Amino acid sequence: MELLPRRPAEFGSARYWDRFFRQRGQRPFEWYGAFPELCPVLHKYVRPRDKVLVVGCGNSELSEQMYDVGMCEDVVNIDISDAAIRQMQERSGSKRPKMSYMVMDMLQMDFPDAHFQVVLDKGTLDAILTDEEEATLAKADKMFAEISRVLQVGGRYLCVSLAQAHVLQKTVEYFSQEGWVVRVHQVAGSGDKQQFALPVFVYVMTKFRKIPGSAPQILEICPEEQDKPMRVESAERLVAAVKDRQHYALLCSQLSKTPCREQVSLDLCDKESGRPRYTLHVVDSALVKPSRDNHFAIFIIPQGRETEWLFGTEDGRRQLAASAGFGRLVTVALHREQHYEGMASIQAELSGKVMELAPPGLPARQQVPFLSVGGDIGVRTVQHRDASPMSGEYVVEDVKGDGTCYFRRLVFLCNRNVVQSEARLLAPTPLPGQKKRRKDKKKPSPAEPPAAIDKSYLCCEHHKAMVAGLCLLGGPDPLPGALLAVLVVGLGGGSLPLFIHDYFSQARVAVVEIDPSMLEVATRWFGFSQGDRMQVHVSDGLDYVAKLAAEAPAQYDAVMFDVDSKDLTVGMSCPPPAFVEKPFLQKVKTILKPEGVFVLNLVCRDARLKESVLATLREVFPLLYARRIEEEVNEILFCQPSPEGRRDPAELEARARALEGALRQPGRPWDSSYVLADMLQAVKIL
């Protein structure tokens, strides 16, 4: 501990370094970055005939090792410490005749201008630039100016650094403003084997003649796993890219030492585009006792299934890890913008990277299994991609579910982990008289899903619960043949209003959708159509309901809200907050018939906000039922304007069974997994 300086300023003191090297003795001192790790980067920029200056050499072996492997011979080492230079001279002796050592202050060097092709600095800048005080920054400017003076045009300043943000920012700004090309290399393997958890970087500044005017900056970063540099547009982005890699190295260091109590999430980006290619979640299971064979596994989530509860939530992933029986499970989600050849290519691409996330105690050379559902990566086909002024970018995609089923989904890319609408696709059936495909003929590609929409199937559990809520309507039996007026706010893919239209033969359905693009999507891609009993009004739901309340009150048997919020900063993603404010809810009550029902899909992660919404609903509607959707955040609220419509659970179940029996008509398709009574079993009266 006595070797450490009392103040950062002592790093620039010859007296301190003389004392340091005398007390340390002859043992070489390396701040960070061993030669085998630095060599692949250094050999790209140092040629055998280059004249090399090493500033602040200390008693590091770096220049000696470069000399000994033939990387360079004409090397001058300088340091302000006389003790360090004497040690280096004694150690080299006559073994390296072309290598010289000099006591010299790099802030005021005696060399002529343009004397060197390479200036090498290992940790010296980090020792000088200890803070952002004015005097420290002035010293750094002086150091840079001297390095610039002694370098030839086309020469390289190579700086080995831990890349603290202020050090990198100062270096990049100075040399880029001088018209130099700045490239930052991450040194491979430097984050986990050294005494520092942080990775080591090499800044490569190449000197060009300064062009008058505003020449474009050339800033690049080379991650450790690739040779090809990536261009970045500003010093701030370069610093941010380095910081991302530092955070990743710290994370890997932490994960290699202790189990993680909370799930860790990170994105691995495509080398070419820089866009996320894989999203990883690291899950440690306390329920699994690690043995030699169950320490660690990788689980590839099939394409399109990353939004399912088991893969898309913390509780689901925790259950998955326990069921898989591994102490640490890394789940890997695949991104729709990327192309994947198959499980083997993904395994080859990820095997090196995921091992950096291995748990403590993993046996050496342990084979780490890659798991998936059914052993494949699933199928995802993007059918349509566009952008709407209101909804932003969106995609319509077909994905393969369990077994042979395919599903069509609408996803808003502003919230890509949420499926906005979903419909099941029908398997193609041969036409009358059409012969079956012969076995020897080419089979259809599994990546070509069927195109027809199964309108009898409600994919979303909250839609099933919303339909089941029609049991609350007045009358002796809420039969499908009853004359019903239903208002649905929020079209999406149109599954909910289509189901009500098709299964309630006398229902007249009005749909309000603010985004005209969604009407086009629903019509073109989800089998939606308008008719005498189905009308879509392209309007703001707030304005439409307000107008109805003023002009035509008490006309709807059911009003359903299934509308998302575009404001992701609010802890409620459905509906937008304005839809649950008291004055607007009173307008909703006004357009309902006295025995009608208001059905609201509520998705709220903010507990206080949710309680506030429920309190407001209770002020307006005297009768309120709630149905929580299992394994989802959705909660379906059934609100009635009169307390006289209160029904006990047994009566609700009986009405639900009666309704389902009436809906199941001979010759009409019905999803056998959809039981209306089940949708109402867990209803609570609030």
UniProtKB/TrEMBL annotation:
Keyword Transferase: yes
A Pfam family reported for this protein in Swiss-Prot or TrEMBL: Spermine_synth
GO cellular component annotations of the record: cytoplasm
Any one Gene Ontology BP term: methylation
SUPFAM superfamilies, A to Z: S-adenosyl-L-methionine-dependent methyltransferases
InterPro entries: Lys/N-term_MeTrsfase_sf, Methyltranfer_dom, SAM-dependent_MTases_sf
Entry keywords, A to Z: Methyltransferase, Multifunctional enzyme, Transferase
Domain Methyltransferase as annotated: residue spans: 50-172
Compositional bias of kind Basic residues: 434-444
Annotated GO MF terms: methyltransferase activity
Region (Disordered): 429-450
Superkingdom of the organism of origin: Eukaryota
Similarity field: Belongs to the methyltransferase superfamily.
Protein name, as recorded: eEF1A lysine and N-terminal methyltransferase
Naturally occurring in which organism (per UniProt): Psophia crepitans
